[in-house]
Structure of Phosphate acyltransferase:
Amino acid sequence: MSLNSSNNLTIALDVMGGDKGPLITIPAAILAINKQPNLHLILCGDSSVIQQALSEQGISAESIKNHSQLSIFHTSQVVTMDEKPAYAMRAKKDSSMRKALDLVHEGKAQACVSAGNTGALFSMAHFVLKTLPGVERPALISSLPSRDNDKHVFMLDLGANVFCESHVLYQFGVMGSVLAEQVDNIENPRIALLNMGEEAIKGSDHIKLAALELSENKAINYIGFIEGSDIFSNKADVIVCDGFVGNVALKTCEGVARLVYHKSKAIFTQNVVARILSFLLKPSFKKLFKTMNPDQYNGASLIGLRGIVVKSHGNANSTAFYAAILEAKKEVERQVPEKIKVMLEQGLTHQ
Amino acid sequence: MSLNSSNNLTIALDVMGGDKGPLITIPAAILAINKQPNLHLILCGDSSVIQQALSEQGISAESIKNHSQLSIFHTSQVVTMDEKPAYAMRAKKDSSMRKALDLVHEGKAQACVSAGNTGALFSMAHFVLKTLPGVERPALISSLPSRDNDKHVFMLDLGANVFCESHVLYQFGVMGSVLAEQVDNIENPRIALLNMGEEAIKGSDHIKLAALELSENKAINYIGFIEGSDIFSNKADVIVCDGFVGNVALKTCEGVARLVYHKSKAIFTQNVVARILSFLLKPSFKKLFKTMNPDQYNGASLIGLRGIVVKSHGNANSTAFYAAILEAKKEVERQVPEKIKVMLEQGLTHQ
């Protein structure tokens, strides 16, 4: 293995993760280096499998040895998609996932991208990288579609934490604000708490307390409570909730999208005329339903850690995995972890 | 006022509730008595407003006096849609909502239907009717669409309770099972708990405990955890969650449906051909999006009380309010509260 130590931006990839592993991750890596000349990728996984996959893409075993943008880090283990996090933590220390995280921890890579087992990735990343000073819990954040075409909305936590105390929700608000500002160039992002009503009297005590904490930090543009029906209405740039609620909301979106897709297929095949029409409208609808499964084409970021970790969907295709690599690159360039740290420290002095 | 005390089934209507009050509720009431000859309705609200609305529908003030299916119960107050429940409880004792509930409590009506303020209705119903013996909390339950055309799925709680302990979730499972069996004729309904994963290790301790309680009651067909993405997959007949999660999931459905509707409008108007084609497919899509807002056309029931209360959506039209009246009638005929009581007692002896 040759680790490229130039000024290039280096990202470690868990090549073996995801439903299809190297079949997806290797083409995405090649796409990434072709499109991003300053990017260096460390491919973590079984070296013979990786070399085979690379040679199928026209990169020989010989050329990889001195490749300016690619290097292989051999690992002997793989974290499977249904493995329990605790087991993966204990028994998979030489896995592609673990080693990709170790490389970030050791400063040999500036970020890590994996399409592997979410629970295991979260536990390992938390253990290996640790949280930023003052951050109680890291969170899983992703962007969802918006009614307005050029916009989208960040939502966290999407399932990393079952329940979150008020101060944790407050920190999620701060972290989401930094990500939206840095990655999406949104000035003064609008932060909202997901609740069962918009009125201040609604919801649990810890949500009301989180609202109070967010409104007291003057560096945060906290706009109040938002309901599930307004997630996509472009009322907020960042929506904060605990991981249980976020996971249910995200998966419910997926369920509704699937339901509408299923029912609209029936509409498109109801008679001969509709079948003919469907040829004309189907591509547009297909694109629409694709955007309704946001976590399948966007990477989700684990934020609040002392390092950048982007999670691609388990059944991501090469384009989606490439998008996750770009997301990681952007977070490195914008120094997201450092800025979260500063913002949280500012919040502490403001309160 | 003449209260009909024959063998007829009597339902009290909160005529003043909902965004449009008598404009919607009176035509629905007339539709109901025309279609249901054994139904007697007590119209609770301002008698002059009701008489005016009735006369506009061709029922004179004279004929109402001896009407076999309609009677008016004059009330001087209205609970407004944005009123706080505590205020409505204290200050609106002569409201149409409160009196409709009182009539159920006094045995003068067997059920009550309202399209009014949900929070106020829930608090008043809980206070006036009280919970069934052993029931800790009443819940709001409604049916959602399913992938399979002739099916749907019941979900509770949809927002009556912010947080629910394990035993409350267990009771919701029992109550939902009874409703699905009695109202929808589903034999041995499949009960699932909404969770952030299907694996037994997922979720909070109180959800795992509720799973244990449900699996120990042999009269309940508990099938395990279900994710948001499978709400509409016809995997379960009843989905149980706390009111916060249920409310977010339901409202997220509404949000996704609105988003898809908005985006598909853009598809249908993207060019001249699509605009012409849209005439042919639009009615089918319109129907589809309507079913995606379940609480707008179905009534939601407050179950676990010593009486039947059906909540119609605030902006329900006459057809939707009529559907809520039918739902109430069905619950009376099937003796839902009595059967919940028996089922909970059986559960206690089984455990």
Observations:
- Chain A touches chain B through 53 residues (CB under 8 Å).
- Confidence is low (pLDDT under 50) at residues 1-6 of chain A.
